[in-house]
Amino acid sequence: MNKKIKTDAVDELFEAILHLKTVEECYAFFEDVCTVNELLSFSQRYEVARMLRDGHTYLDIAEKTGASTATISRVNRSLNYGSDGYDLIFHRLEEESGQ
To answer: What NCBIfam families does the annotation carry (predicted)?
Structure first.
């Protein structure tokens, strides 16, 4: 865990997010909390991470997502040396889908 972001306010934000129950609720909350560009950046990074994990090349990912190679590289660094947050989510989604 990155101690630079660990604050009571961030804890409260994450606790609030854990109470969202549907995709529609997520849209409502995140549209209020984030700008459109922030939300699109989050979703782009997630898509980049998924594609990297599935073995796609940087070129394929850049063409499909519009992400810069710098963004792809940062996401790749997070996958390889980060806090394993992406892996946690991907693993849970695989379990849920029975893969």
So the answer is: yecD_yerC
Give CA separation, 11 vs 7, 18, 84, 97, in Å. 6, 11, 18, 29
User: Torsion angle, CA of 62/73/90/28, rounded to 10 degrees?
Assistant: -70
- Percentage of the chain surpassing pLDDT 90? 92
Helix (H) or strand (E) holding 23, with range, is helix 23-33
Q: Would you say how long the chain is, in residues? A: 99
Check if the beta carbon of residue 75 is closer than 8 Å to that of residue 48: yes
For residues 82 and 43, give the distance between their C-alpha atoms in angstroms, rounded to a whole number.
Answer: 18
Burial class of 35 by CB neighbour count within 10 A (0 to 12, 13 to 18, 19+): exposed
pTM over 0.90: no
Residue 62, token pair as written in the block: 């850049």
